[in-house]
Every structure is written in structure tokens, then in C-alpha cells.
């Protein structure tokens, strides 16, 4: 039996969902018997190969996030929005009520700092979007796993159901909306 191929990425967020994923602790060894990771910041693989499952944390705040998300949608049979930022935009979306130009001016031009009075404008920097978006506003999402972050047990329950070919279901106690 071939292993399921899994890809993960972190977009605009804090990396807390990947940390929660690592908190499944020794169960990771069981998981590694069942899946193969195609792309993940945990292994520093940068491109998403064809995969059965894509776990994506973080919202969409810049052009690079859009590119990575669309690459995942093209290459993953199933996409999971993992955590509050992926599901709703989360904490990064708190800037959505502000004007992006005003934010950049405040950060780079109002106070003295390393920017030398200039708003960074380099081709190496991803173009910021006016708003932070949840994943489903850019691509189709198959599953939503809420929480900030979802617990290790919730991630484990989802993954074990998915790997076993069962429709993933989480008991009420495993779902967090904070």
C-alpha cells in the first residue's frame, strides 16, 4: 500500500498550527508510517508536488501567499484550512479596517528605524494585498479545522480519519473557535 502524500505550508500567520501539529508528539512516528511529506516548512521543501492532502495555515496577505495557495490547490486533491487565520483571516485580518498605505506610512515613515525613511519597494518583497483574506476567498477549500491553533488532538483525529479513508469528524470537545 502506498503512503498518502501530504503537503503543508504556513502563509500569513504565526506558525502556531504547525507547532500544534508537532505537538502530536510520538504519534508523529505512527503518522510517518502512513504518509509521505511532499512539501513542508518542517523539511524545507519549497514546492508542492502532486499530493493527496494539503494542510494550510495562515491567511492571504500578499501576492506570494496567493501564488503558494493556488499552487497547492492545483497540486492537492484535498485542501484543509488549518486554524483561525486560514479559516477567517485571524489576527492578521485585524488590519483590514485600516488603509494599507496609511499602515506602511506609519510603520516606515513616522518613526525612525532601519528603513531610512523609505517604504520598502524591492522586487524580492511580495506585493502586499489591501486586505487579508481567508483561504476560501481565493480557492476552494474542502475542510475547515478552526482554532487558534487547533489542538494536536484535533489535528490527529482529522488526519487519522482521513488516512483511514473515513470522513473526518471531530467531537465537539476537540473543536475550538478561539
Describe this structure in words.
The chain has 178 residues and is an alpha/beta fold. The protein has one domain (4-95, 129-174): Rossmann fold (3-Layer(aba) Sandwich), CATH 3.40.50.700. 31% of the residues lie in helices and 21% in strands. It is built from six helices and seven strands. The strands form two sheets. Strands 2-1-3-5-7 form a five-stranded parallel β-sheet, with helices on both faces. A two-stranded antiparallel sheet has the order 4-6. The mean pLDDT is 92.
Question: Keywords, please?
Answer:
178 residues; alpha/beta; Rossmann fold; five-stranded parallel beta sheet; two-stranded antiparallel ribbon; 7 strands; elongated
Summary of the model, kept short:
This protein is of the alpha/beta class and 178 residues long.
Mind sketching the topology for me?
Elements: E1 4-10, H1 16-22, H2 27-34, E2 35-39, E3 51-57, E4 60-62, H3 63-75, E5 76-82, H4 84-88, H5 100-110, E6 128-133, E7 143-145, H6 152-163
CATH architecture: 3-Layer(aba) Sandwich
CATH overall fold name: Rossmann fold
Briefly note the structural class of the backbone.
alpha/beta
CATH class: Alpha Beta
Molecular shape: elongated
Q: What portion of the residues fall into strands of 2 or more residues? A: 15-25%
Integer count of domains: 1
Radius of gyration: 18 Å
Portion in helices: 25-40%
Average of pLDDT = 92
- Major sheet summary line: 5 strands, parallel
Q: Strand order, biggest sheet?
A: 2-1-3-5-7
SSE sequence, one letter per element: EHHEEEHEHHEEH
CATH superfamily: NADH:ubiquinone oxidoreductase-like, 20kDa subunit
Give the CA-CA distance, first to last residue: 38 Å
Count up the helices.
6
Number of strands: 7
